[in-house]
Amino acid sequence: MGRRFLYAAGFLALFLFSSPRYALAEDKTEGRYFTIYFSSGLDSRALAQQLNISPAEGIIAGENPGSGPLDLAAMMDTLFLQVCNILDMQMYSFHGAIKICLSRSELGSIYRSLFNAELGPMKSFYVYSNNTIYLSSEEFRREIIGHEIAHAVISHYFVVSPSVKIQEVLSGYVEYQLRKVSR
Ligand SMILES: [Zn+2]
Fold first, then answer.
1. Which CATH number is correct for 7-182, 3.30.420, 1.10.150, 3.40.30, 3.30.2010?
2. Spatial separation of the C-alpha atoms in residues 48 and 50, rounded to whole Å
3. How far apart are the CA of 22 and the centre of ligand 1, in A?
4. How many whole angstroms from 148 Cα to the centroid of ligand 1?
5. Higher pLDDT residue, 39 or 65?
6. Where are the domains positioned within the chain?
7. CA spacing 20 to 30 A to 56: which of 64, 78, 116, 144?
8. In the structure, what pLDDT confidence band is assigned to residue 19 with cuts at 50, 70 and 90?
9. Residue 21 CA to ligand 1 centre (angstroms)
10. Cα 125 to ligand 1 centroid, rounded to whole Å
11. How many Å apart are CA 72 and CA 48, to the nearest integer?
């Protein structure tokens, strides 16, 4: 969904991340390209199973071959490289965050606290000011995450950002490509 320029909202998000109440309600795992926060009640292994990205896909995307199945952080790193490859935009230094909510209603309440607006039909969103992707475990699919990763990549790749419409077209293209392979 659309990139947000609400810096005030970004500060609010940073406050939310740093407040003890929030810290208690989530866990995190570190990858090369993302720090992944997930709400309590979610299991990173189950999320990884749901995403189901194979080590072979990692190698094709340009990762070094490891041993055994990928964990959640490694899958996100692979997905990041896949998105960069689809867009043909290589990022040499990037580190963002992904917040996985337990439910759509939790996602909606985060959106409300950030933007003072309703989430509506959106399944996920990206906030530029804190470089964070927000989505729910109920919609935890590679094409949805990939769409938001595309927003993050596009936002950081260009010196002069393309219009919101062009960003949406490019992110939609990534989503389409990822949906094709996940079928
Ligand atoms: Zn979008």
1. 3.40.30
2. 5
3. 26
4. 6
5. 39
6. 7-182
7. 144
8. very low
9. 30
10. 7
11. 5
